[in-house]
Design goal:
- By secondary structure, the protein is an alpha/beta fold.
- It is built from 11 helices and 15 strands.
- Strands 6-7-8-3-9-10 form a 6-stranded mixed sheet, sandwiched between helices.
- The longest helix is centred in the middle third of the chain and has 15 residues.
């Protein structure tokens, strides 16, 4: 786990949320310093959105506390929310309002008036690419422009902290690239907590990753350090064409039986009848000698075998697929 960071602007202290007999979040604690861009990850139902809602004051925790800029969110929700720009997964918008009226309405709710409001509206509209649709009803906008409007309302009051929950959900590839670029740009100025399922983007843009599973925090570290420490060895294996006389399932079974191997998946080979496999092993273990021995004993020929750098996806799988062993 990461060491506690100094001068946190976001802090979760033993946050817990129960919905009747269901425990959605189990005593989660972490800190985020000013200027950090943190990926907040977990499988569906892991408690990500519930945690975000407690940080922003939309849900009151069953136990524990959340602090934004030193303000207790439960004790002074409005004071904390002045420091937060929040984009929930399902962007809350008023479909019958024009974009310009919606942003003016949100700005006034935030206490902005006159020239200050006009300046902020102009700035966020230019930044979010909304200038051409200001006179359109929100209900007429594409999914991409609706998401831009949601981002604009989150930025309007110039908050110190941005919390984005699946900001690219439902967008097409071009829209995803555009929104990613905007978020990456904002990361040079703001503290950002980004919850998403797009792991390569997190690995590219977030300096730190927090992973939750079944409501509990299971990892919190710098992105590179986390992948090295938790994903274990990842080995790509290519089996020579002569092995086609064997059932691929028997090759999978032979590799799975190697000591320390946690999973095996069949992948594309290198053409010309080759078979490919991706082998994951436990931490601090190089499975290649065992894989070679398994090939010799089973009578098939290895054409290539090499280790690969662990990805955030491999780390995520190793931390959230507890007890699952075998092949896909």
């Amino acid at each position: 786990m990461a060491e506690p960071v100094s001068e946190p602007i976001v802090e979760a202290r033993s946050l817990r949320k129960e919905f009747g007999p269901t425990v959605a979040v189990r005593d989660i604690s972490f800190q985020v310093s000013r200027g950090e861009v943190v990926g907040f990850l977990g499988p569906n139902g892991a408690g990500k959105s519930t945690t975000a809602k407690m940080l922003t004051g939309f849900l009151r925790p069953t136990a524990g506390a959340a602090f934004i800029g030193g303000i207790d969110v439960a004790a002074d929700p409005l004071g904390a929310q002045r420091k937060i720009g929040y984009l929930p997964e399902n962007t809350p918008l008023y479909d019958d309002m024009m974009v310009i009226d919606f942003l003016r309405f949100v700005g006034e709710l935030r206490g902005l008036r006159g020239n200050i409001l006009s300046k902020r509206m102009r700035m966020v509209c230019e930044r979010c690419g909304l200038t051409e649709v200001l006179g359109k009803d929100i209900g007429q906008l594409s999914k991409g422009y609706r998401q831009r409007a949601g981002l604009a309302q989150a930025l309007l009051h110039d908050p110190e902290v941005l919390i984005f929950d699946e900001p690219t959900s439902g967008l097409d590839p071009n829209q995803i690239v555009e929104i990613r670029g905007l978020i990456k740009e904002l990361g040079s100025e703001k503290t950002i907590i980004l919850s998403t399922h797009i792991l390569p983007e997190v690995q590219a843009s977030c300096g730190r990753v927090i992973i939750v599973n079944k409501g509990a925090l299971v990892a919190d570290d710098a992105t590179d350090a986390l992948t090295e420490a938790n994903a274990g060895a990842v080995v790509r294996v290519v089996v020579a064409p002569g092995a086609l006389t064997l059932d691929p399932q028997k090759i999978l079974a032979a590799f799975v039986a190697v000591a320390g191997v946690s999973s095996v998946e069949q992948r594309d080979g290198e053409g010309n009848g080759t078979l490919g496999f991706l082998v994951r092993a436990k931490r601090s273990l190089d499975p290649r000698p065992g894989l070679f021995q398994a090939a010799v004993e089973s009578g098939f020929v290895l054409l290539d075998m090499h280790r690969e750098r662990a990805s955030l996806e491999e780390t995520f799988r190793s931390l959230t697929m507890e007890g699952r062993r075998g092949h896909a």
